[in-house]
Each structure stands twice: as C-alpha cells, then as structure tokens.
C-alpha cells in the first residue's frame, strides 16, 4: 500500500560516517523509492560536509529541501546560513532548543531573526532526549513562533515526543503547525505512545508528515513502522497520500518549485 505512493521523507540528516554522505543518501533514497527529502543541517560539521558536496546537490536540486540550524550562541551558524542563501539553497530555518541549549529567554531573538527572512518555513525540534531537561522546551518554542508567525508554516519535529499530547493539544488549533513522527514512530513503537500516535494520525492526517530521522534509523525500518501506524489508524488512500507526500508538498512546495526553476 505504501509502495504505490510517492514519498517525501520530511526529516532526515546526512550520515557523516559515510565517505560521500550526500551521494550515499541519494542511493539509499533510490533504494527505498523516496522521491524527495527535507535534509536538516543542524551543526557546522553537517553544513561543511554539505557545502563540500554542493555539486551533487546542484545536480539533484528538485529532490532536496534544506533546513539549516540557527544557533543564537554560534555566529558561524548564521554565516553558514547566509552562505547557503547565496548558493541558492534558500534553506528553511531549524531551531533546536536541546542541541543549542536554548532557554525561553532566547525566543525574542529567534522571532527577530525569523522576521528578517519572511516566508521561510521554521522547524523546531521537540525531542525529549537526555538529561538536559531545562532545554526540552520545543513545544513552548513551537507555540510562541506559531502564534507570532500566523502566515508561516511551523513544523514540530518529533511531534513533542514525550510531550506528544501536550504538543497536540497546544497546537492543533493553530492551523499553521505541522508535525512529523520521525524517531518516535520507531523508538516508541512498543510503548503506550503508540496509542497516541495512531489516534492523532487518524484525527490530524492533514497536518502530519512522514519522516525517518535517518541515519538514526534505517529508511526501510522507518517506512515499515510508519506503514503499520497508517494501517492501524485505518487511513484512506487519500489520507495516506497526504501524510506521505501532499502535506510535505504543501509545507515546502513553493521552495521546490523555486529550486526547480
Ligand atoms: Zn532529526
């Protein structure tokens, strides 16, 4: 069922252990019939690797949407973002409260920054992971930015994870907020969170996007895990196409047509 539909993987990364990460990512996407992907460059090392392989990107522009991490504590993240802009990658903005050790006090800085780049989608990490619990504030960031930028798409990466229900109940009435199930669909497949993921796939299929979080998980594994949730939720063919493809196209489509010009 999953195989008949074109797929956009709306959340993945480069595997920096590979010799040619971008080339090997394309090969893996081909193997698993992934048409396009949203490639997230959180850290300087990821951006440097990407820039080294910019040729490969240029030859396959229509298959990649790039998001670049903006770290208030790291000036180079802003310079590299500008560099990507100048190279015509026009990346969306990725905010990672845990990785960048952000606090709620940094929100005004991010609002100012995003205002300088109108129209760019904004993805916020909301994976509850590790001991630095003071930085597990992705849901708060998402809500603040979605309330401020009502005409922009805000993507909650990992859908709040442990704060899944909090994330859904805080954001489901903000119709500019979208979600991905990357990481959580595989990591929590045998926990009580599965029940919530299935239920909200059913209720909110028009705003949830498929994503793998490769290389943390293999592409094939993620597809299987997500397919199982789709089956359990009893999604129609149209809803299945939405979560696998159409919703991502709605969020990022203007970037793709821009890139393909
Ligand atoms: Zn990720």
Output the CATH topology: TIM Barrel
Q: Low-confidence segments, ≥5 residues, pLDDT <50? A: none
**Portion of residues within helices:** 40-55%
Find the CATH superfamily: Metal-dependent hydrolases
The rounded Rg comes to: 17 Å
- CATH architectural category: Alpha-Beta Barrel
Please state the average pLDDT score. Answer: 95
**Number of separate domains:** 1
What is the terminal-to-terminal distance?
A: 32 Å
Oligomer: single chain
Structural class: alpha/beta
Q: How many separate helices?
A: 11
Keywords:
alpha/beta, TIM Barrel, eight-stranded parallel beta sheet, globular, binds zinc ion
Report on this structure.
The protein contains 11 helices and 8 strands. The protein has a single domain, classed as TIM Barrel (Alpha-Beta Barrel), CATH 3.20.20.140. The protein is of the alpha/beta class and 261 residues long. The structure holds zinc ion. The site of zinc ion (ZN) has 5 residues, from loops.
Short description:
With 261 residues, the chain is an alpha/beta fold. It has one domain: TIM Barrel, CATH 3.20.20.
Question: How are the secondary structure elements laid out?
Answer:
Layout: E1 7-12, H1 21-31, E2 34-41, H2 44-52, H3 54-59, E3 64-69, H4 75-86, E4 92-95, H5 107-115, E5 122-125, H6 138-148, E6 154-157, H7 164-171, E7 177-180, H8 184-187, H9 193-203, E8 208-209, H10 219-233, H11 237-260
Parallel strand pairs: 1-2, 2-3, 3-4, 4-5, 5-6, 6-7, 7-8
The structure holds zinc ion.
């Amino acid at each position: 069922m999953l195989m008949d539909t074109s797929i956009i993987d709306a959340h993945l990364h480069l595997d920096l252990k590979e010799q040619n990460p971008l080339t090997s990512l394309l090969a893996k996407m081909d193997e698993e019939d992934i048409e396009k992907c949203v490639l997230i460059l959180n850290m300087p090392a990821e951006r440097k690797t990407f820039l080294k392989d910019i040729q490969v990107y240029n030859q396959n522009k229509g298959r990649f949407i790039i998001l670049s991490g903006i770290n208030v504590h790291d000036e180079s993240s802003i310079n590299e973002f500008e560099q990507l802009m100048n190279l015509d990658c026009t990346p969306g903005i990725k905010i990672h409260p845990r990785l960048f050790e952000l606090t709620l006090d940094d929100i005004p800085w991010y609002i100012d920054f995003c205002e300088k780049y109108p129209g760019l989608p904004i993805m916020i990490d909301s994976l509850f992971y590790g001991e630095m619990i003071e930085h597990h504030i992705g849901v708060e960031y998402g809500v603040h930015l979605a309330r401020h930028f009502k005409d922009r798409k805000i993507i909650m990466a990992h859908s709040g994870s442990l704060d899944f229900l909090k994330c859904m109940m805080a954001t489901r009435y903000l119709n500019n907020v979208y979600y991905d199930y990357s990481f959580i669909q595989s990591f929590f497949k045998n926990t009580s969170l599965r029940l919530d993921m299935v239920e909200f796939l059913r209720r909110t299929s028009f705003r949830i996007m498929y994503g793998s979080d490769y290389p943390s998980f293999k592409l094939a594994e993620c597809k299987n895990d997500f397919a199982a949730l789709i089956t359990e939720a009893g999604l129609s063919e149209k809803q299945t196409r939405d979560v696998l493809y159409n919703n991502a196209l709605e969020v990022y489509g203007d970037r793709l047509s821009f890139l393909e010009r």
